[in-house]
Design goal:
This protein has 167 residues and is α+β, with helices and mostly antiparallel strands. It has three helices and eight strands. It has one domain: Nucleoside Triphosphate Pyrophosphohydrolase (Alpha-Beta Complex), CATH 3.90.79. This is ADP-ribose pyrophosphatase YjhB, NUDIX family.
């Protein structure tokens, strides 16, 4: 997975401390209802297409860019599915990161699914009932994309009881 230049610049100053980073994750469907997945170079596992927005880039712009860069597919963003902060990760080089993902439902409008950069070993469309092994978070995101639910987010705990509020 290529580390964006702006993160390399931050790491040069901050070292390997925990960085909270934005992420976009896309559930991309084609006209047949199949979902687009890539087999990642860094893990060898099948995954939803994902990436990191560049500074100043809107999440939808990042999503469209990442889909095309990684898979050759042209897509449009249809809606926000969820906003979710993942567990922290530690990379082999000792860098610590935690991603807050904006998960987007997207629709393919052109291009051809293929390995289009060095981040993927394989890129394919999969029927929902023929998905390869995926983790529970990815499966949950696909299930959410198939429904017309409101945007999902982890709820905050209720505020501590103190004095009653009066307008």
């Amino acid at each position: 997975m290529a580390t964006p230049k702006f993160i390399q610049d931050i790491r040069a100053k901050a070292g390997n401390i925990l960085l909270l980073l934005p992420g976009v994750v896309m559930v991309v469907f084609d006209e047949r209802g199949r979902v687009l997945l890539n087999r990642r170079t860094d893990t060898g596992r099948w995954a939803l297409i994902s990436g990191i927005p560049d500074p100043g880039e809107q999440p939808a712009e990042a999503a469209v860019r990442e889909i095309e860069e990684e898979t050759g597919v042209h897509a449009v963003v249809e809606r926000v599915l969820s906003v979710f902060t993942n567990e922290p990760v530690v990379y082999p080089n000792g860098d610590h990161a935690q991603y807050t993902d904006i998960v987007l439902r997207c629709r393919a409008v052109g291009g051809e699914a293929r390995v289009n950069d060095d981040e993927s070993l394989d890129v394919r469309w999969f029927a929902i009932d023929e998905l390869p092994p995926l983790g529970p978070i990815a499966r949950g995101r696909i299930e959410l994309a198939l429904r017309d639910d409101p945007t999902w987010f982890a709820p905050a705990p209720p505020p501590a009881a103190s004095e009653p509020w009066t307008p």
